[in-house]
Protein: HIT-like protein
Organism: Ruminococcus bromii
Amino acid sequence: MSDCIFCKIVDGSIPSKKVYEDEKILAFYDLEPQAPVHVLVIPKEHICCADAVNEGNVGNIAHIFTKIPEITKSLGLTNGYRIVNNCGEDGCQSVKHMHFHILGGKKLNGTMA
Ligand code: DGP
């Protein structure tokens, strides 16, 4: 999608601090960190949100979860972390390209909402 910030990060026209990349997914540091370690993991394919996951694109999302253990280890998150996905208006999703926040590096707040 030409007007999507994260598609531009995927194609390199917007720079990012990458922590992992392969043919299907990209992980990079969040611009506005909310924890000592705050990384975003995205499918390279433009999927707007959790609402748009289907049998045709779920492989890319599954791939994210198979790589999260490797990504978190490389970030030193050996004592746990939180994975957050915001979806739509009520979920306060600001970038409409599906992404998973990985937050860690300290004992996180126990509240979810
Ligand atoms: P969400 O609210 O779940 O849609 O989170 C979007 C996140 O994306 C937010 O934590 C800030 C981050 N973000 C927005 N624009 C950029 C950018 O251009 N580069 C990077 N690295 N992160 C961005």
About this structure: The mean pLDDT is 97. Residues 5, 14, 16, 28-32, 40, 86, 92-95 surround 2'-deoxyguanosine-5'-monophosphate (CB under 6 Å). The longest helix spans residues 58-74.
